[in-house]
């Protein structure tokens, strides 16, 4: 410590690590710092308050802080920056960081700690922060010298923003940042990763796929991150293949497209395997196969199936099951090149057969959709139906509205009426951590103040990060929230039925009583009001239009509790 101790400033903080760090963030275009403060970051927080162009977005619990930052980063596509308080703050954030890691959200999370000088003392609240962060981040390290502070900030930002994007962690000890730092501030260089496989590999892949009779595409968030949804749709049209979203929490193709086959789901590997069981050729792009809670251990592809896998991350390619050809490449550029190559490789009869597959699929999908929507119509009254809520909103929302969907079991009804059609306007939890719907919508609204942003959550999911409502009120972030209140954990009930059936048990019978969140039911109107967000409850279809209009017209954040079950005696 001797060399640096000599440079510790007496009265000025002008060129301390605190200031340097914020200047670096400013140089990288960071305008918000999401946090919850503590004593071990006092020096940095003091400095933040002096930076007019970096707003501190205050959260009241770290899971909510990280999930708000997550929504912001998803909506901007740029790293969000978070500042947490030592081991206790980081500990609270681990579940949300897990979500960010799987969602591939670019994010720099820093946590303050008193100082490296105190390591041997195992001082109050100290813990090995890097060890805590490692399993839920792409990269985690600790700054131990003032002249490597910006080096590590830039490295962390670069790693966060490089595909596969994700959260990174820096421990920033106060005694290191208190010292004068000599490093120059220069913008972080994020490498351009828009690479194409060499033409021979593209042509070989196109030849493998050209003769398919029953082709299937599995596409994930990597396609969205590359901005490749149009290229994906074009390739699917030429090849005559249905597209399923696997780990597609953003739009990879308009859900109204005739070839969109829906999401594979996050729960059961046998369901996903079923989707490719008939395929004689599969293109996997911007995802890995398959991302479920209970994956199928066997190879989902039937013998002889041509499997081509494209991703920017070689680790994702052939991660779990063998593929015929893997290519590291930017999904958008590679899809474009593959489209040109397969147009060349397909014979006239193959082109004709592909066009015929598209025509048949378009006809059958249109009639299935019409039937599903017709079945929904009239679903008003009491108890209120989610289809009525979604249909009501669909009639009122502007075209460029942003949806943050954590409606879980109510998501199918929501997306039937509000199908995602534009990139960057729909975000869904990739499964896992509950509590992304409310803070995610706040982050998205902060990123796009000019757009209407509606976050959907369940009555279960809404409780994990409900403190974010205070953040919306405090900063005047006018996101709207719809709580799909069905009295408990419906997903766990649905999955228990499946579990029993899969094991040959009778699927019926009582559910564990703790799957219900009743007695008392959570009063979301009172909860929101307690945090400064106006709210209302709607329980009858007749009241919907007025309730929805009031929510959307309100000049600020607003929560609508949609009562979707019969509250009975528990209300
Ligand atoms: C942090 C966290 N805790 C617990 C769970 C387990 N879990 C998954 S779904 C679910 C219930 C969700 O209920 P709700 O949000 O009301 O949606 P619904 O199933 O009723 O549609 C729970 C508790 C989880 N995924 N994440
Ligand atoms: Mg529920």
Automatic annotation (TrEMBL):
Its cofactor is thiamine diphosphate. InterPro entries: DHS-like_NAD/FAD-binding_dom, THDP-binding, Thiamin_PyroP_enz_cen_dom, Thiamin_PyroP_enz_TPP-bd_dom, TPP-bd_CS, TPP_enz, TPP_enzyme_TPP-bd. It holds the Pfam family TPP_enzyme_C. Residues 416-561 form the Thiamine pyrophosphate enzyme TPP-binding domain. Keywords: Thiamine pyrophosphate. Residues 16-120 form the Thiamine pyrophosphate enzyme N-terminal TPP-binding domain. The keyword Endoplasmic reticulum does not apply. Belongs to the TPP enzyme family. This is Benzoylformate decarboxylase. It comes from Actinoplanes italicus.
């Amino acid at each position: 410590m001797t060399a640096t101790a000599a440079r510790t400033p007496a009265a000025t903080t002008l060129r301390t690590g605190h200031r340097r760090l914020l200047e670096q963030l400013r140089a990288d275009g960071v305008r918000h710092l999401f946090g919850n403060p503590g004593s071990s970051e006092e020096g940095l927080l003091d400095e933040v308050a002096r930076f007019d162009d970096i707003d501190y977005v205050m959260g009241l619990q770290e899971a909510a802080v990280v999930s708000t930052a997550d929504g912001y980063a998803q909506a901007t596509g740029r790293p969000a920056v978070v500042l947490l308080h030592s081991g206790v703050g980081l500990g609270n954030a681990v579940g949300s960081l897990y979500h960010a890691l799987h969602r591939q959200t670019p994010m720099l999370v820093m946590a303050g700690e008193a100082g490296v000088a105190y390591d041997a003392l195992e001082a109050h609240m100290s813990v090995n922060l890097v060890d805590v962060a490692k399993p839920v981040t792409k990269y985690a390290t600790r700054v131990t010298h003032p002249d490597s502070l910006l080096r590590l900030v830039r490295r962390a930002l670069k790693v966060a923003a490089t595909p596969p994007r994700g959260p990174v962690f820096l421990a920033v000890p106060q005694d290191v940042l208190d010292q004068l730092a000599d490093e120059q501030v220069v913008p972080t260089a994020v490498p351009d990763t828009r690479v194409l496989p060499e033409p021979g590999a593209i042509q070989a892949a196109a030849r493998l796929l050209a003769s398919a009779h029953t082709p299937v595409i599995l596409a994930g968030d990597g396609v969205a991150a590359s901005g490749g949804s149009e290229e994906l749709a074009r390739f699917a049209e030429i090849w005559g293949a249905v597209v399923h979203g696997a780990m597609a929490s953003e739009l990879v193709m308009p859900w109204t497209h005739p070839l969109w086959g829906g999401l594979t789901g996050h729960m059961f590997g046998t369901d996903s395997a079923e989707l490719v069981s008939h395929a004689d050729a599969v293109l996997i792009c911007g995802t890995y196969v398959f991302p479920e809670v209970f994956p199928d251990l066997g190879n989902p592809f039937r013998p002889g199936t041509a499997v081509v896998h494209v991703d920017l991350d070689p680790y994702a390619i052939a991660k779990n099951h063998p593929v015929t050809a893997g290519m590291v490449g930017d999904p958008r550029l590679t899809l474009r090149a593959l489209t040109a190559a397969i147009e060349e490789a397909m014979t006239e009869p193959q082109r004709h057969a592909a066009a015929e597959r598209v025509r048949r699929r378009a006809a059958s999908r249109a009639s299935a959709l019409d039937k599903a929507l017709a079945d929904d119509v009239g679903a008003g009254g009491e108890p209120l139906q989610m289809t009525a809520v979604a249909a009501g909103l669909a009639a009122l929302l502007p075209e460029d509205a942003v949806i943050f969907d954590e409606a879980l079991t109510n998501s199918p009804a929501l997306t039937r009426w509000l199908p995602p059609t534009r990139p960057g306007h729909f975000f869904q939890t990739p499964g896992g951590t509950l509590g992304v719907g409310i803070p995610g919508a706040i982050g998205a609204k902060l990123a796009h103040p000019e757009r209407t942003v509606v976050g959907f959550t369940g009555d279960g999911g809404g409780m994990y990060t409900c403190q974010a409502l205070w953040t919306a009120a405090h900063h005047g972030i006018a996101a709207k929230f719809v709580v799909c209140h069905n009295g408990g954990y419906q997903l766990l009930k649905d999955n228990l039925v499946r579990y029993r059936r899969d094991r040959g048990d009778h699927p019926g019978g009582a559910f564990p009583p703790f799957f219900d969140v009743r007695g008392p039911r959570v009063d979301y109107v009172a909860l929101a009001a307690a945090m400064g967000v106006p709210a209302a409850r709607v329980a009858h279809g007749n009241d919907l239009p007025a309730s929805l209009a009031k929510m959307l017209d309100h000049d600020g954040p607003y929560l609508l509790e949609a009562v979707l079950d019969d509250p009975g005696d528990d209300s």
